[in-house]
Amino acid sequence: MKFAYVCVLFILIVVENGSKAYPLDEESATAPEDYMDYVELDPMDNVAELQKTSTGRTWLGLATTLIEKPAHHAFVFHFPMATQEQLELSGLIKSVHQRLRDSAKQQDPETVWKEHVRDEGLLKSYAEAMHKLATCYWDRTMEVSCKRSNSRIEWVVASCRCYFHGATPLLYLFREKDDKVMQAIDAGYRYEHRPYTIDRIKLLDVGSCYDPFASFPDFDVTAIDIAPAGSSVWHCDFLEAEVNKTLSIPSISEQHHSIEAFPGDHYDAIVFSLLLEYLPSSEQRLRCCRKAYDLLKPEGILLIITPDSRHQGANAKLMKNWRYTLGLMGFSRIKIEKLEHVTCMVFRKCIFPTVGKRWCDIHREAYMEPVLNIPQDFNETKLEEKDDSAMDVPRTDEDDGEIRQAFAGLPFLES
Ligand SMILES: C[S@@+](CC[C@H](N)C(=O)[O-])C[C@H]1O[C@@H](n2cnc3c(N)ncnc32)[C@H](O)[C@@H]1O
After folding, report:
1. Which SUPFAM superfamilies does the record cross-reference, listed alphabetically (predicted)?
2. Under 8 Å CB-to-CB from 41, ≥6 apart: which residues?
3. Looking at ligand 1, which atom is closest to the CA of residue 241?
4. Ligand 1 in contact with 218 (CB < 6 A)?
5. In whole angstroms, what separates CA 164 from the centre of its chain?
């Protein structure tokens, strides 16, 4: 479905000095070669994708006007303004995250968190805003309609299917790899594996909000949130939830539609989609990952989606430190992929935690420590500035302004 603000039927490409304008319509979705390497217009959504391969930059979005900036040899999209509602929704989400982080810098993060989860009014507003932003704006405009392969939900589903199902499930390949690591540690290592039996993938979606995985029939989903946005989502604060190894199913309270305790070694897959950034301290994020470890079956997977609108590699050090930190817990990272606005990772719970720890021993670098920081934890998000050398185009304040406007609808733009 087209959105009201995307009703323009052509795109103008304008050289910045104003001397030339190139109309792009549905029939001729091409551009003069000397101005760009690649432009694609999806007539269904008026989505344009522009790639300048010489710089490796790609801009993707709903565009009305593309402007080339010859001085920088870069192109800038002029997007239709995000609707007022979209800005208000993302503003609310950002302000909740920001306020939690600010408070946790001044007082004990645990106290801050306890106060936060008691604020029912705020949680309800957040849930409504996130639900609407994700389903009415973000998923449809910034992800799915632009490029199906940019959907974090689709990414999780495809990654799970590849790992557990298919002609040669990846699970068995990683099992063999782990066996080799174990043999390298101990030449006498022998282990009798059993087949990993699976029918529907038992998936725990933590911080689910609106239960986006419910529509996939090969998944048996348990969706939890401190602020459920739908009736299929159970109320549960994952930070406080108990792990009880004697249980065979989650312990629930029908009255509160909540889950109080989970069985250990139970789930095939656990999803943290945009969850960790909500938590104000590294310690709380670590606790969630450790709990996920306990709830997963051996060889189960933890899928983490984290917002990241920067270029590929900008947060590489941070992500490597996450790998190190989760490795110490006994996870091994088996996949990492940068989509348009998020970085997506799969961590496997190794049968033997030594496999994850060995990676840490071999790959430890001086900066690595067992913490889970996010870029927003730092006042200045300049952690990987040196790596920006890969981008040989100087970016001006004006460019940054354009980019900010373009992505203004995203709830996670760092402010
Ligand atoms: C940014 S939203 C992401 C929603 C959804 N997963 C998605 O990808 O669109 C983060 C969600 O995590 C939930 N959340 C935060 N901390 C939580 C916790 N400790 N336990 C359960 N849910 C939590 C929030 O209420 C919110 O709905």
Report:
1. S-adenosyl-L-methionine-dependent methyltransferases (SSF53335)
2. 11, 24, 26, 29, 47, 48
3. 20
4. no
5. 21
**pLDDT tens for residues 210-234?**
999 999 999 999 999 999 999 999 9
- On average, the pLDDT of the chain sits at 77
Closest C-alpha to 342, from 261, 270, 271: 271
Q: How far is CA 166 from the centre of its chain?
A: 24
Which H, E and C letters describe 201-229, residue by residue?
A: EEEEEECCCCCCCCCCCCEEEEEEECCCC
Helix, coil or strand: residue 385 = helix
Spatial separation of the C-alpha atoms in residues 256 and 223, rounded to whole Å:
15
Residues 52 and 40 sit within 8 Å (Cβ to Cβ): no
Going by alpha carbons, the residue nearest to atom 10 of ligand 1 is 275
Residue pointed to by tokens 């994708």: 49
Which tokens is 254 given?
Answer: 């029908």
Tell me the C-alpha distance between 388 and 361, whole Å: 28
| Average of per-residue pLDDT across 122-138 | 90
Residue 41, strand partner residues: 48
**What's the CA gap between 49 and 148, in Å, rounded?**
13
Choose the most confident range, by mean pLDDT, from 38-52, 60-74, 187-201. 187-201
The atom number, within ligand 1, closest to the CA of 284 reads 19
Q: Kindly state the tokens that stand for 109.
A: 């993060």
Binned at pLDDT 50, 70 and 90, residue 379 comes out as low
Nearest atom of ligand 1 to the alpha carbon of 130: 2
320, 146 Cβ separation under 8 angstroms: no
Q: Which of these, 319, 272, 321, lies nearest to 293 by C-alpha position?
A: 272
Output the pLDDT for position 213.
Answer: 97
Please indicate if the annotation marks 188 as binding a ligand: no
Condensed to tens digits (0 to 9), the pLDDT of residues 336-360 reads 998 877 899 999 999 999 999 999 9
* pLDDT tens by residue, 141-181: 544 334 555 789 999 999 999 999 988 899 999 999 999 99
Instruction: Give the pLDDT band of residue 53 (cuts 50, 70, 90).
Output: very low
Q: Which of 242, 318, 220 lies closest to 277 in space, CA to CA?
A: 318
Task: Read off the pLDDT of each residue in 368-378 and give the average, rounded to a whole number.
Answer: 93
- How many A from CA of 281 to the centre of ligand 1? 15
Do residues 403 and 341 lie in contact, with contact meaning Cβ atoms separated by under 8 Å? Answer: no
Instruction: Enumerate domains of the chain plus CATH numbers.
Output: 151-377 (3.40.50.150)
First to last CA, the chain: 31
